[in-house]
Design goal:
Length: 465
């Protein structure tokens, strides 16, 4: 697989940011062209205009599907310029660069970004696809070519500057597939499906706003040895949890300080001071029987965090057996403002399981006289309109990535990024991004990149190869 090293490009244009943005959905006047190269020495042979459908490209208003070229196998079977049949087998002597592209004369003299999402990728290993922007002279000789490999599912973006698209240039953008003419009898060659944005995520998704049937439970543990002591159902308000239709506010439990003041199972008063002998796990959660047998993601945003250092909060999904013994517990620490996400798979939420999601606060029963304990306020991730502001200003590519990720920022605000794994654990943070972000130490898989631009946030998926 070809390795790409990309360097950060941040363009500051004052308060006005000139930028054309195109996607598959905005661009339906597709063309096709084929360039050929000798298999023997890699030298250019010839090229010709072609039909989009003959190019095995299928364009709709929302996507483009690309497949290896099978038309030429039969059409040119007996042509020695295309195939060597001397051995009794049909052997290609040319490699194809099959271009499916848009040529738009309105895109000169301005910066241009071509972006999209590969929603499906099962292409044979002997073929590869790139997304490109080409800026050509009047005779179609190349002035600038920028491209990014499309070799897995995920978002992509490729850009050129206004200086590169100077007046008089010819601007093309689209896709190129490289590989030999394909045998139509081979049904294993696969395809690439490209749209403007990622398809809706599969599985169930829940947030604070979608989930108002909150419950509360308290588990207690001995301060002396950390062993479980006992647990009991509780009131949400008594749990110092305040739920509205848009948020949940969590505070340390102050109810038990007075209620159980004289109870030796709760407090040691032998020194003349009230000293807790139990630590609390205060649960505020939703139990939803409709969430079995499918993947589940619980996400949200901590909009305010000033909790005392002696208390901590997690967001969790618990999958329990019929007797409430744990089968799967996934959680993420909430220890600062920002987005969070925690997920379980469909296999983990099998039919018959009990699914709970919500929050747990850990700490001692609190003295109501202490007004410095603080709280945590949790709501939905930022509204899509705010996310759009960030996503329009910040381009992240390549995606999938291997060693580095490039961020192109059309803003004079500082860009901070934080990368989370599928369990919501923060694995990398870079503030005031101004160089390539190196991700080579991250394991292959799906991650979430939280981008903070000034006071606004957005989250994008990132695939690490």
């Amino acid at each position: 697989m070809k390795k790409i090293t990309l360097i950060l490009s941040i363009v500051f244009l004052g308060n006005t940011f000139a930028q054309n943005s195109v996607t598959v959905e905005t661009s339906q006047a597709w063309n096709a062209y084929v360039n050929t190269f000798n298999v023997s020495d890699g030298q250019y042979a010839f090229g010709f205009a072609y039909g989009v459908a003959d190019n095995q490209a299928t364009a709709t208003t929302t996507s483009v599907t690309l497949e290896p070229n099978i038309k030429l196998w039969d059409l040119e079977a007996a042509n020695p310029a295309w195939f060597d049949n001397s051995s009794g087998s049909q052997v290609p002597v040319l490699t194809l660069e099959s271009l499916t592209y848009v040529e738009d004369p309105t895109l000169t003299s301005d910066a241009l970004t071509f972006s999209g999402n590969v929603s499906s990728y099962d292409l044979d290993i002997n073929y590869n696809v790139i997304a490109f922007i080409k800026v050509l002279a009047a005779d179609y000789s190349p002035l600038t070519v920028e491209s990014v490999d499309l070799d897995a599912t995920g978002d992509f973006s490729v850009s050129v500057t206004a200086a590169e698209t100077a007046a008089g240039a010819i601007v093309q953008y689209g896709f190129a597939m490289y590989g030999l003419p394909a045998d139509p009898a081979d049904t294993t060659l696969g395809s690439v499906v490209i749209g403007a944005q990622a398809p809706p995520p599969s599985g169930n998704s829940v947030t604070v706003e979608t989930s108002q049937a909150w419950n509360a439970y308290v588990n207690t543990f001995n301060v002396s040895d950390g062993q479980y002591a006992f647990g009991f159902a509780y009131g949400v308000a008594d749990n110092q949890a305040t739920a509205t239709t848009t948020s949940v506010t969590l505070e340390p439990n102050i109810k038990l300080w007075d209620l159980e003041a004289a109870n030796p199972a709760w407090f040691d008063n032998s020194s003349g001071s009230q000293v807790p002998v139990l630590t609390l796990e205060s649960l505020t959660y939703v139990e939803d029987p409709t969430l079995t047998s499918d993947a589940l993601t619980f996400s949200g945003n901590v909009s305010s965090y000033d909790l005392d250092i002696n208390y901590n909060v997690i967001a969790f999904i618990k999958v329990l057996a019929a007797d409430y013994s744990p089968l799967t517990v996934e959680s993420v620490d909430l220890d600062a403002t920002g987005d969070f996400s925690v997920s379980v798979t469909a296999a983990e939420t099998a039919a018959g399981a009990i699914v709970q999601y919500g929050f747990a606060m850990y700490g001692l029963p609190a003295d109501p006289a202490d007004t410095t304990l603080g709280s945590v306020v949790i709501g939905n991730p930022p509204a899509s309109g705010l996310e759009d502001n960030v996503l329009n200003a910040v381009k992240m590519f390549p995606n999938p990535a291997k060693d580095t990720v490039q961020f192109s920022v059309n803003s004079n605000e500082n860009l901070d990024i934080q990368i989370f794994d599928m369990l919501g654990k923060a694995v990398l943070r870079v503030d005031n991004v101004r160089n390539a972000v190196y991700v080579s130490e991250l394991n292959s898989g799906l991650y979430f990149v939280q981008m903070t631009l000034g006071t606004q946030k957005a989250t994008k998926k990132l695939v690490i190869k």
